[in-house]
Amino acid sequence: MKAIVLVLVFFAFCGLFPNGYGRNVTSRPAVVNIGAIFSFDSTIGKVAKIAIAEAVKDVNANSSILHGTKLVVTMHSSNCSGFTGMAEALRFMEIDTVAIIGPQSSVVAHIISHVVNELRVPLLSFAATDPTLNSLQFPFFVRTTQSDLYQMAAIAELVDYYGWKQVTAIFIDDDYGRNGIAALSDKLAERRCKISYKVGIPPDTDFSQGDIMDILVKVALMESRVVVLHVNPNLGFRTFSVAKYLGMMGNGYVWIATDWLSSYLDSFSPLSSETMNTMQGVLTLRHYTPDSDRKKSFFSRWSKMTGGSLGLNAYGLYAYDSVWLVAHAIDAFLDQGGVISFSKDPRLISAEGGELHLDAMNIFDSGTFLLKNILKSDLIGLTGPLKFDSDRSLILPAYDIINVIGTGYRRIGYWSNYSGLSTVPPETLYMRPPNRSSANQHLYSVIWPGDTVLKPRGWVFPNNGKQLRVGVPIRVSFKEFVTRVPGTDMFKGFCVDVFTAAVSLLPYAVPYQFIPFGNGKENPSYTELVNLITTGFFDAAIGDIAIVTNRTKIVDFTQPYVASGLVVVAPFRKLKSGSWSFLRPFSPLMWTVTGCFFIVIGTVVWILEHRINDEFRGPPKRQIITVLWFSLSTLFFSHRENTLSTLGRFVLLIWLFVVLIINSSYTASLTSILTVQQLFSPISGIESLKEGDEPIGYQVGSFVEHYLSEELGISKSRLVALGSPEAYAKALKIGPKKKGGVAAVVDELAYVEHFLSSQCTYRIVGQEFTKSGWGFAFPRDSPLAVDMSTAILALSESGDLQRIHDKWLMHSSCSSDTTELESNRLELKSFWGLFLICGLACFLALCIYFLQIIRQLNRDDPTECTSPVQGSSHSGRIHRLLSLMDEKKDMSRQKNKRKVERSFSESDKDAELGRNTKRKGMEINSSS
Question: From the UniProt record, which GO molecular function terms apply (predicted)?
Fold first, then answer.
C-alpha cells in the first residue's frame, strides 16, 4: 500500500513540475494575474485605465465566466518610452502574469513584443496600430484594434473619391508615423494616386513652433493642397495653430487627420472655441463601433463614473473588450485542462554579483496554448464581433468619416473594407453582396476649410519660383504648326497659339519656358520627346504630338485639340467619256448576275405558261426565241406575250419591279458619268497599298513608320522617309517606277490637308483608317493635364480654337473640287435583296406548279400508285409526268361549262320574265 501511495505522489509531482522545477499551481487557481501597460497621462491612456478596471470588475462579478477564479490586473505606465515599457513588462513576469494588455504606443509595442516572445506571454494591444507589427515577426503579439493599414486604405479611397491625385503627408517620425505613411503610399498607388511630398516631425517635445512653421512653409510651396496629418494630439493641434496663422486653413486646402483627432474630440469635447477655430473643415476618421444596448448602457455608466469630465473614445472600448477577450480565453484554457505554470530560463539567470535579478523572470509554460484560445475567440463585445481572420486581424474593419464644423463635428459617412464609402451603416451593407463600384460610393456634403461647400481642386501650381520646362519640337517642315523664331528661344505656330490660349484660361498662373528639341536639320522624333517627360527632363511637351497607344502608356495627354487620323495621298487623273462608258455604271459581277436573272425569269415564266398559253407553245426553236425575247423585252416593259396563269403573273410582277429599280439606278449612274468630271487613281486606299509592292512615303519623325511596319506588317524596305511637303510632291510626281519616287504618301490628316491646299494634282484616296488627335503631353497623373483639357474645351466652345486654326492653316490656292476619286460603281451588294426576293418568288411559284402537276397526275391515273409491279412503273411515271407538262391543257371543257351555266341562268331569267308578264295581264283583266 505504501508503495502505491508513493507512486501516486510521484506522478502528481511530475504533473505539477513538468520541467523539473517550477511553481505549483492548481488547474483552477484562485487568482489569475494579467498586466496592463500604457501611458496613464495620454489621451488614450486616461480612458483605457478606467475601462480596463471596469472590465476586470465586470468579469469578476460575472459567475458565468472563470467559475470562481478571480482576475487580477496590475497596471504600469510606460510614459510612451520604449525603455520604460520594456522594464515594466519584465516586472510583470515576477508576479506570474499570463497575459499583458497594451501598450498603446507602437514604438513600445515593437520593444515589448521581443520580450513576450521570449517569455511566451500573449500581448493584447488595444491601440498599437502600426501595420508592421505582424504575426510572423511577433507571434505573441495580438492586435485587438484595427491596423492602420485599413485606416490608410480608407484615406486613399477618400482621396480617390474626390478626384485628387496627389497628397502631402506630415507625420511623426517614429514607428507609428513612418509605417503608417508607408501603408498610405501603398494604398494610394493602388488607385494611381501618390504622396508628392512628405515630411516627418521629430517626436521630441522640444520641437518648437518655429520648426513647425518652417515645415508648413515648405508644404505651402508644393502643388498639392491635400494634407494628411498623422501625428499625436500635441503635435497635431500645434500644427493646426501654425497652419491657421499661415493662412493654410482657408479656401483650396484639404486637411485629413487620422484617428488621433477623433479620439481627442471624443474624450475632451467640447474644446475651446480658439482650438476649434484652428481646424474648421478638417476631415478625420474614427473606429466604427456598431450601436447596441450593451454599448449604450456602458456609455451611461461611464458618464456617471466620470461626471462628464472625460469622454469615452473607441480605444477605451477596445481596451474594455480586450479584458473580456483574455477572460474568455483563460476560461476556455482552464476548461480544456490547461495548467498555469511558470519555469525558469537558464539564459536569464543573472551573473554572480549582478543586481538585475533576471532569475526572477519566468516563462509561461502554456503560453502558446493560451494564445491559440485567444485567436479562436468568437464573441460580441462593445466594439462588435471579436473574431480574428487568417491574418490575425479583427474581422469587418470600418471607420466613421467625420467633418469638424463649428464647435463640434458631424459624420458624413462610413468606410468599410467590405463595400467602401457609403452613407449606410456597415452592418446594413454586410447583409448585401459587396459592391465597390464608383456609382455605389456616396458621402454627405462637406464643409471644407474656408467655410465653403465647393470641393477644393486639391492642387495649385507650386509657388516656389520653378518654371515648367516645356519641350517644343524644332520642325523643318509644316512650320505653320510650330516653328522656332530665328535667333530667339521663342516659338510660334498653330500649336503654340493653342497652348498659350489654354494657359491663359487657367484660374492660376503657370510660369513656363519653352525648351527647343531637335537639331533643326530634320524633324525630331516625337516618341523621344515624349520619353523625356518620363525621365523628368521635360515637365510637358507641346506641338503636333499625335495621341497614340504606346505614348499614352507613359504620359497623360490633354483633350485633343485637332482630330487627325492617317490617310493615303496619291496622284489622280481625270477620266473622259469613251465609247464604252455605258458599261461603267455596273460592275462586271452586277452585269453577269442581271443577265442570268433575265434568262431565269424567262424560263420560269415559260414553264408556268407552257401548258395553257399558245404564245409559249410551238416548235423548240420558236419556244427558245420566245423565252429570250420575252425575258429581254421586260427590260423595256415592251413584252407582247400575255401571261394567263396566276403564278406567272405573280413572278412577272415582282420581276418588273426589280427591272424598274435596276433601270432607274443605271440611268442615274450613267447620267453622272457622262455629265460630271470623274477622277481616277490606281490606288483605292490602304488595303491596295498593303497588297502591292510599291514604295510608300511617310513623314520623318512621325509615328507612321512604326504603325505601317508593326501594325500593318508592311516591309520597312518599302517605306521612304520624306521631310517636307515639297518632298511629298516630288516623290509622288516621280512615281513608284523610278528611284526616289513613291506610289502614295501616308500621313496624318492635318498635314495632308495643308499639303493639298497648295498641291492640286493629288487627292486623298480611300477612308481615314485610324482615329487619333493631337494633344499636349504631361507626366502621368498630372492635374495640369486635366485643367488644360478643360481649357481646350472652353476654347472650342467659344470658337477661339477655330479662329486660331483659320489664322494659320486656311490657305488654299486650288479651286474647290468636291468630286471624289473614281465614283463607286454600282455593286451587286446594293441589289442582292431585290434579287433574293425575285429568286424566292420563282422558287415558290415552281414548287406550287409542280405540286399541281403531280396532283393531276395522281388523279388521272390512280391505278399506278397501287400497282404491285415496280419494274418499269417509275420510268413510265416520269414519262407520263413529262408528257403531262408538255401537253396542251384542254380549256374547252371549262369554257363550255361556263357557257352552259350562263345559258341556264339566262333561261331562268326569261321564264321568270314570262311569269311576271302573264300575272300582270290577269291583273288587268280582273280589274276590267
Answer: G protein-coupled receptor activity; ligand-gated monoatomic ion channel activity; signaling receptor activity
For residue range 788-810, what is the model confidence (pLDDT) as tens digits?
Answer: 999 999 999 999 999 998 888 87
Number of domains in the chain: 5
Q: Which of 914, 857, 924 is nearest to 885 (CA)?
A: 857
What gap in Å lies between CA 268 and CA 213, rounded to an integer? 26
Burial of residue 502 (CB within 10 Å: 0-12, 13-18, 19+) is buried
pLDDT digits (tens, 9 = 90+) for 479-517: 899 999 888 889 999 999 999 999 999 877 788 999 999
pLDDT: which is higher, 134 or 240: 240
Residues 286 and 433 in one domain: yes
For cell 486613399, name the residue.
156
Q: Which DSSP category does 771 fall into?
A: -
Report the alpha-carbon distance of residue 143 to residue 102 in Å, rounded: 9
Q: Using pLDDT thresholds of 50, 70 and 90, give the confidence band for residue 924.
A: very low
Q: Are residues 665 and 709 in the same domain?
A: no
pTM over cut 0.70: no
The dihedrals phi and psi of 894, each to the nearest 5 degrees, come to -65, -40
181 and 121, same structural domain?
A: no
* CB neighbour list of residue 522: distance below 8 Å, 6 or more residues apart: 476, 700, 701, 723
Cis preceding linkage at 29, omega within 30:
no
Angstrom distance (rounded) from CA 455 to CA 193: 18
Least confidently predicted of 18-22, 140-144, 302-306: 18-22
50 and 86 assigned to the same domain:
yes
pLDDT at site 422: 95
User: Domain range for residue 610?
Assistant: 581-675
| CB within 8 Å of 763: residues ≥ 6 apart | 569, 570, 572, 679, 681, 756, 821
Residue type at 97 in one-letter notation: T
Shared domain for 510 and 628, answered yes or no, is no
In three-state form (DSSP H/G/I as H, E/B as E, the rest C), the secondary structure along 612-627 is CCHHHCCCHHHHHHHH
Q: What is the distance between the alpha carbons of residues 379 and 410, in angstroms, rounded to a whole number? A: 30
* CATH, residue 268: 3.40.50.2300
Q: What string of H, E and C letters represents the secondary structure of 524-565?
A: CCHHHHHHHHHCCCCCEECCCCECCHHHHCCCEECCCCEECC
Nine cell digits for residue 592: 453577269
